[in-house]
Amino acid sequence: MGAYYQYLVAFAAGVGGLLFGYEIGVIGQVISMDSFSSFFGYRYLAANGDYKDCTGDDYPASCSSLAEDTTGWVTFTFLIGCVGGALVSSMMADGIGRKFSILIGGFFFTLGAALQTSANGLSLLYPGRVVGGVGVGIMSMSVPLYISETSPTAMRGRLTTVYQLMITIGIFIATAINSIIISTVDNTSATEWRLALGMQMVPGVILLFIMFFMPYSPRWLINRDRDAEALTILARLRNASESDAAVAAEFKDIRDSVHAEREIGEASWSELMAPGIGKRVFLGFFLQFFQQWTGMNVILYYQSDLFARMGIDKKAASIPFTLANDFINFIATFPGMYLIERVGRRPLLIIGGVIMGTSLCIITLFVGLSSQTPGLPWAAIVFVFIFTIGFASTWGPIVWTYQSEIFPMRVRAKGTGIATMSNWIWNAVIAKVSPKMIARINFYQYLVYAAACFIMAVFTFVFVPETMGKSLEEMDEIFGSPTHARKSIEKGEKAIVTSA
Ligand code: BGC
What we know:
Belongs to the major facilitator superfamily. Sugar transporter (TC 2.A.1.1) family. The protein is mainly alpha-helical.
């Protein structure tokens, strides 16, 4: 049996990550479908038989909206929903629990997909995008948190990275399925885009079904005084009996810690600024800030454009190259999963920043020189792949792991909520800014992301402590005792730091 149940729980919740990845993979391709753009009125069929963007003043009466506005809003409405979902989730994850938060996230995602699929105009498409985004926002906060709280210390990093693995699987599956839809379905029929968007409901329903059978987080149960249930679930997760000494010791550690924290009363939002907690909020926020400023999503969204700029024939090569890069993104998560419990979080973040920064500089140089030097575009493509390997094995998975493990139970939902909002806010900012950067400085924008990659390596070196091998209850030792621990001591009670 081994740790099979533990993996099952992580993969089941990880389907929430797959939905997130599926959305990333699907929307870029749908936006550029002729069937979608002509249906929503931002492209038109020109006299020569080609579809053209409705831009500037040069468009016929059949255009009902401008191309840049519509594509921008299709992406942006979703991201706004994600920010809102992360906020809602940080407020409800303590009340209804981690498991039900994931279920509610899955429900919103599936509902959003249904609205988008059946949309007959932008007035239904945009709300559908917001609703789907709320679902992804809720899951992106609660899935890593749930996996982290159900995992044993020695496997926590690896199991939490399952979330990132599932994101990358989602991106790859979506690209693959869309490629089939694009090459088999009539590109003038609305069936093409409706099918692509409608397919999202399949993993959505799968998540709702399997998550229903998954256990509650034992830490959350103890916090709700449901100790007997918590012990049974903990024993099952650890593949041992309830009387097993290690299970009993872990149960006691969690309970002591939760009870000591509860004695201080309700956690308020202002407590996030308290000594010992403020630094964790700072780290969660900035690690997610930097994760987005690696430029990974710019590479993902515009990779077919980038490959075309390198001289590769757009139609013939963009699908295979995009698929190859998405596949590498998936495969390269495995070294990260392996190394996170051997090398640790800190060294991987530093190495990852340097690999990505160097790759982006080389890509810029090679693409810039490619018109004079044949062969260089191919070298640039290799470095796009190396960049992806750098992201997928370090900053992609580790940031989600780190944010879900550093906060004490009292403020865990709020702290991880803020970090998750940071992910989505910066994702949205980059989605808005990068098309403008493309218009102004073209591929030189990669140097901006390269600079961010080098800065994040230094940031990690200076500010990010190692958490490998520490239980969730031991994080206070690393980050300094928060105020409430001190208050306990002042009151002459036992400090909340429990296990040793
Ligand atoms: C990031 C996403 C990104 C994805 C790519 C995630 O960790 O948060 O913004 O699209 O990785 O694999």
